[in-house]
């Protein structure tokens, strides 16, 4: 459900108790549901919950602890724009290593919090139905990893997520993940990409690192170059890649990306990757690898490769080096393209290449 701003804790518990086969939940904008109400919901649904997505709601440490404790069958987790979700919540996805984290993840702490809020009379209709600590007695297991988790999406956190915690979580869960979304994790850097993601994410096919501006282009090149052989060995590269607002990306990154995942890539988002990218980098999508020979200023075609033959959707919005001529090469090579977004690309005109089934979105000549 979306835009469910009038939904409260009592409504949430009614869903948990009235729908015995409820396995997937998505709620956007349920800002009246509190951290504690979410905790009881997870206690109610237990391991039958397979997928959970929430945005703009009161999801915090109490809810996170209950989710990990009770929903051991979780396969998909997405938390976005939750104001109470912080680095401590993220750390709960990994085994506790400090005394403070052990305290935060202690089951009895959750019980005390529930009991204290009840005694202080803080249970309003929004939080109605919260169980007492006695009801939980003897039923709260110790921490254990979410072994069935395949999709982890934590985009746009309101509070900063540290590089150290992100590395711990990926070391714990990375090898089992197929989808990883860390959009807006501005603190992660080269050591995260090269030391953790490269070693523990071999099964990831959908990767989102948009707005991760702490990663250098040199690290991206090294990451993709090192992963190229592994991608060929396991038979797949990335199918969906979102690098929106990674302003530092260069032509070399694009060339390595195409050589790494050109045969498998279906959607690519390069929105606003404009600072260092040129048309030579974009032409890599069409299988054209350019380089600048020593002693020369102008790039020359070094080699031709397959290109992104499986590409279906491409976002080049605000990549101002995009032109009709560049698109002609890309469209000619990427036969499966059905959607190209070109907002803010003033050099894309009505003369851009067209064919049946291909749609341009954001072209200035279509909007004027």
TrEMBL record:
Q: Which domain of life is it from?
A: Eukaryota
Among SMART domains, the record links this protein to: LRR_CC (SM00367)
Q: Where are the transmembrane segments?
A: none
Output the GO biological process annotations, alphabetical, semicolon-separated.
SCF-dependent proteasomal ubiquitin-dependent protein catabolic process
Q: Which GO terms describe its cellular component?
A: SCF ubiquitin ligase complex
Its name, as the record gives it, is RNI-like protein
What species is this protein from? Coemansia reversa (strain ATCC 12441 / NRRL 1564)
């Amino acid at each position: 459900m979306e835009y469910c701003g009038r939904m409260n804790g009592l409504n949430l518990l009614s869903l948990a108790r009235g729908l015995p086969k409820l396995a997937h939940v998505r709620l956007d904008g349920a800002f009246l549901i509190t951290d504690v109400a979410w905790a009881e919901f997870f206690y109610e649904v237990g391991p039958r919950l397979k997928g959970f997505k929430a945005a703009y709601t009161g999801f915090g440490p109490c809810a996170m602890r209950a989710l990990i404790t009770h929903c051991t069958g979780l396969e998909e987790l997405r938390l976005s724009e939750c104001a109470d979700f912080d680095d401590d919540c993220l750390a709960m996805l990994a085994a506790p290593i400090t005394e403070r984290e052990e305290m935060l993840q202690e089951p009895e702490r959750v019980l005390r919090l529930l009991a204290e809020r009840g005694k202080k009379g803080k249970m309003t209709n929004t939080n109605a139905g919260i169980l007492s600590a006695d009801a939980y007695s003897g039923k709260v297991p110790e921490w254990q990893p979410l072994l069935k988790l395949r999709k982890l999406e934590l985009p746009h956190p309101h509070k900063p997520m540290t590089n150290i915690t992100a590395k711990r979580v990926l070391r714990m869960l990375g090898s089992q993940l197929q989808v990883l979304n860390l959009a807006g994790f501005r603190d992660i850097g080269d050591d995260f990409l090269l030391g953790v993601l490269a070693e523990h994410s071999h099964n990831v096919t959908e990767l989102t690192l948009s707005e991760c501006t702490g990663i250098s282009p040199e690290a991206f090149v090294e990451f993709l170059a090192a992963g190229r052989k592994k991608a060929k060995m396991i038979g797949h590269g990335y199918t969906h890649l979102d690098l929106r607002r990674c302003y530092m990306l260069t032509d070399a990154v694009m060339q390595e990306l195409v050589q790494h995942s050109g045969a498998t890539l279906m959607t690519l988002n390069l929105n606003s990757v404009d600072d260092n990218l040129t048309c030579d980098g974009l032409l890599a999508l069409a299988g054209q690898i350019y380089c600048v020979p020593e002693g020369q200023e102008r790039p020359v075609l070094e080699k031709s490769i397959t290109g992104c033959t499986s590409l279906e959707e491409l976002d080049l919005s605000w990549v101002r080096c995009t032109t009709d001529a560049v698109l002609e090469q890309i469209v000619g090579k990427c036969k499966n393209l059905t959607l190209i977004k070109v907002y803010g690309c003033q050099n894309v005109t009505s003369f851009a290449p067209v064919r049946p089934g291909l749609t341009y979105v954001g072209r200035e000549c279509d909007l004027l």
